[in-house]
Amino acid sequence: MSEAGSERKVGNPLWLLAELTYRCPLHCVYCSNPVDYTRYGAELSTDEWVRVLREARALGCAQLGFSGGEPLLRDDLEALVQEAHRLGYYTNLITSGVGLNERRIAALKAGGLDHIQLSFQDSTRELNDFLSHTRTFDLKYRMAQLIKAHGYPMVLNVVLHRQNIDHVEQILEMAEKLGAEYVELANTQYYGWAFVNRDHLLPSREQLERAEAATQRFREKVGDRMRIYFVVPDYYANRPKACMNGWGSVFVCVCPDGVVLPCHEARGLPGLTFPSVREASLQWIWYESPAFNRYRGEGWMKAPCRSCPERVKDFGGCRCQAYLLTGDPANADPVCDLSPYHRVVTEAVARAQRPTAAARPILFRDDRNARALSEAQAPLAQ
Ligand code: SF4
Ligand code: SF4
Q: Is omega for the bond preceding 304 within 30 degrees of 0, making it cis?
């Protein structure tokens, strides 16, 4: 084990994210999948996924998210859900709803799926369909009703950004009409495609404050009938979040091609080789691999984190954000106002207060754009 990893006892993972595929019928402008997803290898087979589920459960994972891309594009989703249920996981399907139907939801329910989280892009058909570059609003609406009809709690997720944040009240009214018990209004985090499109997506401070106030009014109106989570964008904070509760601490993500990550954005970090479940056991990857030990503990930290009392709470923030915005993943997350690079965040925020025409058109997440971005290896933000 590395020096950094040996500083504290490494606990077992609790939460497995199974990214079953990068394929998706939607083309969301803020998708968190890698911008070069077309470069990666063949998807794991059913047998390989079953092995991953067993190994992760044996390591101690108890929560399992089936995600993607769109996990419903895998014909073996029902079989994987069944196996996960048999192993004793609490399972969650994270889906756009495209590919769901009466027959599949009945099979998923019978297989023991615990939870379905459905995403909408907006409360209006026009914007939902624009942001996903597909005509999916009506379908999503029907899928929400289907999920409810099968006895699942209604859990809606809407990613917020400058294009839709002024619709928060209408989004919450839609959620109420659909009988939602939980709504997650997650402001965009600027990684992946959202980072490429940041100058189109980062809201102004005024928009953010209006949306928070509207959310609070709605909470007071609906009381306990609906739980509403409002996740503030990092860029408007002055301290970073404890990303993943610390690198390699509780969360493990297995990518469609079997590569294992401590956070679903980490694949692009320099100088690290993330092992695949095709060549190593999950146990070795979690406890022993150099990549998982690289940012454990505190030995890797630079100033100002190294001597900061808050390092035990936030672990210096997000390594991926530090790399994207400063070029060095060992720097403090520049969201922190103690970081010498904090101005890269405040400059982006300042631009969002007086948006002019962005330097490049909005890029939808699709294979053509993914190939162009990987070939050009262009800097990904203005
Ligand atoms: S964010 Fe949109 S494009 Fe990306 S995986 Fe989810 S539904 Fe598909
Ligand atoms: S300096 Fe580092 S440890 Fe201290 S608050 Fe900022 S990011 Fe956290």
A: yes
